[in-house]
Design goal:
The chain is mainly alpha-helical. Helix content is 71%, strand content 6%. The model has no long low-confidence stretch (mean pLDDT 84).
Length: 66
């Protein structure tokens, strides 16, 4: 198993694993209840994690012309 395979779990743990941590209304962050802010944050962070995975896997894509 490669490192980028494990990186796929980071957003999953952040969204689903963090629900118990973030399950509260207060404080409000940017006008959103904390739970909504937490989920929006992880949607954005998921994009960055996927970009990192894409860049780590770039070597395989260059030689693969199937």
């Amino acid at each position: 198993m490669k490192l980028y395979h494990l990186l796929v779990l980071v957003p999953l743990l952040g969204m689903l694993g963090g629900i118990g941590f973030a399950n509260r209304v207060t404080p409000y962050v940017f006008g959103l209840p904390f739970l909504h802010f937490w989920l929006v944050l992880w949607v954005i962070l998921t994009s960055f994690v996927l970009m990192i995975i894409y860049r780590m896997d770039e070597g395989k894509r260059k030689g693969d012309h199937q």
